[in-house]
């Protein structure tokens, strides 16, 4: 029960991203600063964690081996993930972005053929091209159904251009995030833990954030004190606290695939937390009954996908034994 509770608390802090991005947008803050300041603010905290674990030097050595790959995939995994997500806040409410964001599960399934899978057995080590798992893809359609129901209400209240700006931005982010992160995991080859990899990708993506910040200074001016403070809260809550809690929860159950699937499924709670936050702090009107049904269908799809993944991992472990 403890890992589940920790996972739910992590989802709560992850939801700050969607709520505060919506708050900053409503207050006139630019998405440019919501995106770039988060990663700039994350660096000191991540540095503190990595240095305290005496892991900074190995990280810098690893990054120096393949600078171009680190820069490219960090730009895709972080830059093309978070900038579009913040941009979407100008066109869609936070709860809708949080719900649509769950399409990243679908994206991860569709990206499988781009990666090699290493299989260890008594006969040796074999690398096979990943295949799109049919069962996972079918479950993903449940998530897509829920997202479609949520979007239907939004379609009736906004122009087509506004709808597509918000929707396409989240779709881009949903594919960029798993693609960039998986490519970096391949490049690192298990030599770096999650903390070092996140810090390394943040440092490698700095050129993009600096360019975006310069563009922001020229076009919209500097960030307000209020937006800077709120972005700092996002960096701490989502970038540091939520990530640490989620890693802790998964570490507690890493040997039990069924419990691991349950912990991963707790992240579907982000949608409910984001909705509750916007109702409380932005006084938004509650979504229609159709959208509420869509939210719960997305959550159901997430839960089914997590348990299916846990069974798959367990089968692979038994095969390799």
Describe this structure in words.
The chain crosses the membrane at residues 31-51, 72-91, 97-120, 132-152, 158-177, 198-217, 229-247, 290-307. Keywords: Membrane, Transmembrane, Transmembrane helix. Helices cover 78% and strands 4% of the residues. By secondary structure, the protein is mainly α. The protein has one domain. Strands 1-2 form a two-stranded antiparallel sheet. α1 (2-14) runs antiparallel to α12 (225-252). The protein is globular, with a radius of gyration of 20 Å. The two termini are 29 Å apart.
Key features of this structure:
disordered C terminus; mainly alpha
Fold topology:
Blueprint: H1 2-14, H2 16-26, H3 31-52, H4 56-65, H5 67-88, H6 94-101, H7 104-110, E1 116-121, E2 124-129, H8 134-155, H9 160-188, H10 194-204, H11 206-219, H12 225-252, H13 257-265, H14 270-281, H15 289-320
Antiparallel strand pairs: 1-2
Helix pairs in contact: 1-12, 1-13, 2-6, 2-12, 2-14, 3-5, 3-10, 3-11, 3-12, 4-10, 5-9, 5-10, 6-14, 7-8, 7-9, 8-15, 13-15
């Amino acid at each position: 029960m403890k890992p589940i509770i920790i996972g739910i608390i992590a989802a709560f802090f992850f939801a700050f991203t969607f709520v505060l991005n919506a708050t900053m947008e409503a207050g006139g803050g630019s998405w440019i600063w919501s995106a770039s300041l988060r990663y700039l603010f994350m660096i000191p905290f991540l540095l503190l964690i990595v240095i305290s674990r005496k892991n900074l030097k190995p990280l810098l050595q690893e990054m120096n081996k393949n600078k171009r790959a680190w820069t490219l995939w960090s730009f895709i995994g972080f830059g093309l993930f978070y900038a579009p997500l913040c941009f979407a806040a100008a066109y869609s409410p936070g709860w809708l972005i949080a719900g649509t964001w769950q399409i990243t599960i679908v994206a991860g399934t569709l990206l499988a053929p781009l990666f090699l899978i290493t299989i260890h057995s008594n006969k040796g080590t074999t690398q096979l091209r990943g295949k799109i798992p049919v069962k996972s893809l079918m479950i993903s359609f449940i998530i897509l159904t829920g997202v479609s129901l949520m979007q239907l209400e939004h379609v009736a209240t906004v122009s087509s251009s506004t709808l597509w700006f918000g929707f396409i931005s989240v779709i881009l982010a949903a594919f960029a995030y798993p693609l960039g992160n998986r490519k970096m995991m391949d490049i690192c080859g298990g030599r770096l833990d999650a903390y070092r990899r996140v810090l390394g990708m943040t440092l490698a993506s700095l050129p993009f954030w600096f360019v975006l910040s310069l563009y922001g200074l020229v076009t919209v001016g500097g960030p307000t004190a209020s937006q800077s403070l709120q972005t700092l809260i996002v960096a701490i809550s989502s970038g540091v606290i939520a990530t640490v809690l989620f890693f802790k929860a998964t570490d507690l159950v890493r040997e039990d695939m069924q419990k691991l699937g349950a912990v991963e499924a707790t992240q579907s709670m982000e949608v409910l937390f984001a909705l509750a936050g916007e109702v409380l702090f932005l006084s938004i009107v509650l979504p229609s009954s159709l959208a509420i049904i869509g939210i719960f269908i997305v959550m159901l799809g997430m839960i089914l996908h997590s348990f299916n993944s846990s069974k798959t991992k367990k089968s692979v472990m038994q095969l390799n034994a």
